[in-house]
Amino acid sequence: MIPKIVNRTAGKWAFDKLANVLSESLWVDIEEDFGDINYILCADKQNAHKINSFIPIESINIAADKRKIEKKFNQYLVARPNTFLADNEKEVELILLEYPHIQWILKYPIGCGGIHHRFIEDINQIPKGWPQPFLLQEFIQLERPEVYRLYCVDGEIFGFNARRFKDTSNKTPWVSHANGAVYEYGETPNREAREMAKTALISTGLYDSFGVVDILKKEDDKWYVLEVGTDGIYNYVDREVENQNLFDELNERLAKAFWQKIGTPPWGKNWSYKN
């Protein structure tokens, strides 16, 4: 079998840095043509579903659209903040009227890093051309905004961290690396958090390949899943994790999982990973 990291089409520049990291850690070349098994980064959507992908194409598509994530979470009863899909503005209005005590977020469904998310109190606040169906989610107010992340490769969950702003007075609700949040370490997820992350990954088909789960903990210590993420076609998982041990562990786990689907890895039969 010929393995390849696929990075092609006009948007490939956005994946170039990650492609080089993966090429070095997986010991696989970056190509524009498909191989027998592929780690897909940037590729045309029309042909991607026809090829053998380490991360299932269907799961990549789900992770790229928060509405699809919500449908899977609902099917698998994943604990999350109150969330609704509304087919039109009238349904949005009914939700706002029925739950006036909830602060609602209109989430931009096909973005990342909180891009374009906004609070909504009235349907007149919906921008023209907003993707439908509309995705509304309850905003969980925290004393200090934070989001936790767990990683999963080949059915093993690891790498717990938290994103927070260094400035403790910063109350920006979208706690993303792109918005200036930093990764912090030293905490340990409890069993509930890990089980919720596992269910979220299973529901979206990422558990047996590669995915991340963003979760939050309310001040009453209840955990809720926000979304999942993975690499490929539309987005990729942030590798600037400010922790060399996690960076190396993620690369090693991905390399071993990728080559398990092929055969003997290029670093030797004893499975001693070398970067």
Automatic annotation (TrEMBL):
<dbReference type="InterPro" id="IPR003806">
    <property type="entry name" value="ATP-grasp_PylC-type"/>
</dbReference>
<feature type="domain" description="ATP-grasp fold PylC-type">
    <location>
        <begin position="63"/>
        <end position="228"/>
    </location>
</feature>
<dbReference type="GO" id="GO:0046872">
    <property type="term" value="F:metal ion binding"/>
</dbReference>
<dbReference type="Pfam" id="PF02655">
    <property type="entry name" value="ATP-grasp_3"/>
</dbReference>
<protein>
    <recommendedName>
        <fullName>ATP-grasp fold PylC-type domain-containing protein</fullName>
    </recommendedName>
</protein>
<dbReference type="GO" id="GO:0005524">
    <property type="term" value="F:ATP binding"/>
</dbReference>
